[in-house]
Amino acid sequence: MATTIKVSTATRDRIEALGGATHEETIVAALDALETERFWAQAERAKSWWDAHPDEREAIEHEVAERDAAVSRVR
Question: How many Å apart are CA 74 and CA 5, to the nearest integer?
Answer without folding.
Answer: 56
